[in-house]
Design a protein that fits this description.
Length: 534
């Protein structure tokens, strides 16, 4: 009897569904029952049929999906989770580990190789808000630099008397720059110290070379021996392609704060952000490549197709009420440009990317220079960033940070090379290694035999970072906007409500810009989720 009643009720329910007009159902529930009859009755397209059927599979559904596990994506996740403690947040990273360009590799014999030489600039404002500096175990560089000049065997000091007053005599007597050049540093220091960051970014913009020559009247010799290797090591492009606003900004950061290295390498910064996000309830999944992003109008959500690198057949679907695209510019364009209504993004000019290379050597202690300081190639433009002179700057990370970069009794040397030098060697590792060793041997003649001996100075690793940094001057969409662009738009094109964009390419081409853009997108996504819930 009970079975008969149950079957009768099911028959009546199905008959009612067939005769009641579709408009009687709320849009969100209209396709909860999927049958051939119902789909034909409501004149659904094949695409909508597929979408409706997909509702029956076990697609993961979340409030917010963040695409990209670099520091922008992590900052977005942390910010959104802090403001929406009950929201379900999923972060997808295509690589095997989080961090993007802020990562380190750890060798089996105890060395830490950052993926491209990087320093942690402590004065970055967004870093101070998001990170626990004490837990990072930061070890600081000495202010200033050592410079290899063309006509000297020793490394000339460039001191910072503002932060180390005892070095004022060294600063005055240094062979790097004339007395007139040093006197002209005063208005530069005054400018960056007395103006806040917003004021610096509101100054008239020109290229950095013009700024140094016309505004501050520095000599060509001083520019080529100090400013060029220093700033090109940061922004990875010649001074004439750098923004004067970005120059003033980073010079303020170095003047007011320290550059340092975390214990365990730059990966420690990423790990802290990742742990913070997970402790707030964010789910992080690596090896998850997002193939496409599209609107799911049936459920007022977004649909992301995701697959694993390690298992290409493992394609799955993630549905989210909101999405943050926190990737580099090329991936952002690919995903956003295929969303209905956003095809104009594909017509935008591609923003240039800067490349850099880094080569690491491991060798027995002591290091040729036992000061925790950066070494710059000040031999002149003809003897830098070329095939025979590939070195831009050198550092001994194990001397700066004694926790993690090298095992006891050994040291690590990091050599940075800019794009032109790498290309002139056609990215041939053996050729680059030979040229770098020859140049290092001339810089450190007392260690020349060890440097040239490949069994003593062991080539530990080499990195070519193709998309190390977006262009920040004189291109459409240049990454030179302090505070970041509107994350609800992509270079002026309004995004579909619920989609937000982050990454250094929508702010400034700095670590701070990446974090800043992530915070902006996280706040916007949080506000969006709060609105759609009511």
């Amino acid at each position: 009897m009970t079975l008969f009643v149950s079957m009768l009720l099911q028959f009546l329910l199905c008959w009612a569904l067939l005769i009641i007009p579709s408009s009687s159902f709320p849009p969100s529930n209209r396709f909860a029952v999927v049958s051939g009859t119902l789909l034909r009755r409501h004149n659904l397209s094949p695409e909508k049929v597929a979408a409706a059927r997909e509702e029956l599979v076990d697609a993961e559904t979340v409030d917010l999906c963040i695409v990209g596990g670099g520091i922008s994506g992590l900052a977005s996740a942390i910010t959104a989770a802090e403001k929406n403690r009950d929201a379900s947040i999923l972060l997808l990273e295509s690589e095997s580990t989080i961090g993007g360009r802020v990562r380190s590799d750890y060798t089996s014999d105890g060395y830490t190789l950052d993926r491209g030489f990087a320093v942690f600039i402590e004065e970055y404002p967004t870093s101070k808000k998001l990170l626990d500096y004490d837990s990072l175990g930061l070890a600081q560089f000495l202010p200033g630099a050592r410079v290899k000049l063309a006509d000297r065997d020793d490394l000339a000091p460039v001191s910072d008397p503002l932060r180390r007053r005892r070095d004022i005599l060294k600063a005055i007597t240094s062979p790097v720059g004339s007395l007139v050049d040093k006197a002209r540093l005063v208005p530069l220091f005054y400018n960056v110290v007395t103006k806040n960051v917003e004021d610096l970014f509101s100054m008239e913009e020109t290229n950095t070379l013009t700024c140094l020559k016309d505004k501050y009247k520095f000599s060509d010799e001083f520019i080529s021996s100090f400013f060029a290797p220093f700033l090109e090591g940061i922004y990875l492009t010649p001074l004439e392609k750098q923004s004067s606003r970005m120059f003033h900004f980073v010079f303020r950061m170095f003047t007011l704060g320290s550059a340092s290295l975390p214990a365990g390498g730059m990966q420690s910064v990423t790990n802290q952000l990742g742990n913070k996000a997970q402790n707030l309830g964010v789910k992080i999944e690596c090896d998850s490549l997002v193939l496409s992003l599209e609107k799911d109008d049936l459920n007022k959500r977004f649909r992301l197709r995701v697959k694993s690198h390690s298992n290409p057949k493992s394609e799955r679907v993630v549905k989210a009420s909101s999405v943050v695209i926190a990737t580099d510019e090329m991936v952002s364009r690919r995903l956003l440009g295929n969303v209905d209504g956003l095809n104009k993004i594909n017509d935008l000019p591609v923003l240039s990317q800067r490349s850099v290379g880094c080569i690491y050597y491991a060798f027995p202690s002591p290091a040729p220079l036992q000061e925790p300081i950066l070494i710059l190639n000040g031999e002149g433009n003809e003897s830098r960033n070329s095939k025979d002179f590939p070195i831009n700057n050198v550092c001994f990370p194990s001397v700066v940070q004694q926790n993690g970069y090298a095992p006891d009794g050994y040291e690590l040397c990091s050599v940075s090379m800019l794009e032109n030098a790498i290309n002139e060697h056609s990215r041939d590792i053996e050729s680059l290694d030979s040229s770098v060793r020859n140049q290092l041997a001339k810089w450190f003649p007392s260690h020349a035999s060890q440097i040239m001996d490949e069994s003593t100075w062991e080539l530990k690793g080499i990195y070519f970072i193709n998309n190390a940094q977006p262009c920040h001057f004189e291109e459409d969409g240049s990454a030179n906007i302090h505070g970041g662009r509107d994350c609800t738009k992509y270079r002026g094109i309004p995004l579909t409500p619920g989609i937000f964009v982050a990454g250094d390419h929508v702010a400034t081409s700095t670590f701070n810009g990446a974090l800043e853009s992530g915070v902006n997108a996280g706040e916007a996504a949080s506000s969006f989720l709060q609105v759609i819930r009511f």
